Amino acid sequence: MLHYYYIPNNHSWKGWICVRRYALFSRAKDYTTTVLLTDLSASTSMLVWGAGGESLEDEYGGPLRMLIPNLWGYKSCKWLVKIEFVEKYVMGYWELRGYSHSGDIEPGETYDSIPGNIGQLAAVK
């Protein structure tokens, strides 16, 4: 059994949080990333603390991690220690190194193995 908490739709958040546009995720060792609240309102976004009846292992981001499947992995902060709701975008670890601010997974070319030919790659559009 997967233990998780779905992030509620923006309209169900009350008071001060409705005027914020972003969530700033932080972990203990100088890692942050910022995500639009609209991305958190997706039904697939969740805070994860366990799987299969066990606590989430450190190698998978335990004891607590964010999971936002519609964005690239660097937006799903592992080893989460703090969530802040902010009005302005704050550049995070990977964004400061040139990665996309939004983390959107855009359509384009991906690579997949050719069935029966392990090790060979084929461009898929």
UniProtKB/TrEMBL annotation:
<protein>
    <submittedName>
        <fullName>Oxidoreductase molybdopterin binding domain-containing protein</fullName>
    </submittedName>
</protein>
<dbReference type="InterPro" id="IPR036374">
    <property type="entry name" value="OxRdtase_Mopterin-bd_sf"/>
</dbReference>
<feature type="domain" description="Oxidoreductase molybdopterin-binding">
    <location>
        <begin position="28"/>
        <end position="94"/>
    </location>
</feature>
<dbReference type="InterPro" id="IPR000572">
    <property type="entry name" value="OxRdtase_Mopterin-bd_dom"/>
</dbReference>
<dbReference type="Pfam" id="PF00174">
    <property type="entry name" value="Oxidored_molyb"/>
</dbReference>
